[in-house]
Design goal:
alpha+beta; 3 helices
Length: 67
């Protein structure tokens, strides 16, 4: 059940964003995502709501543009 999860992993984010895991980890390591990264030991997670808002914003920014 993923509806109740408050966080998502970097690989989950990568799948939703349509990018590679390596690229997502690189973005997370440089704070380029603009979403807080939470570290639990070696595990990195993103707040689900913030990550989805980021992706939704990118979709809205890109809609109607073929750049």
């Amino acid at each position: 059940m993923t509806e109740g999860k408050l966080t998502m992993t970097i690989p989950e984010f990568a799948r939703l964003a349509g990018i590679s895991k390596n690229q997502a980890y690189s973005l997370a390591a440089t704070d380029a995502l603009g979403v807080p990264i939470i570290r639990f030991g070696k595990r990195l997670v993103l707040p689900r709501k913030a990550a989805l808002n980021l992706l939704q914003g990118e979709i809205q920014k890109g809609s109607g543009n073929d750049n």
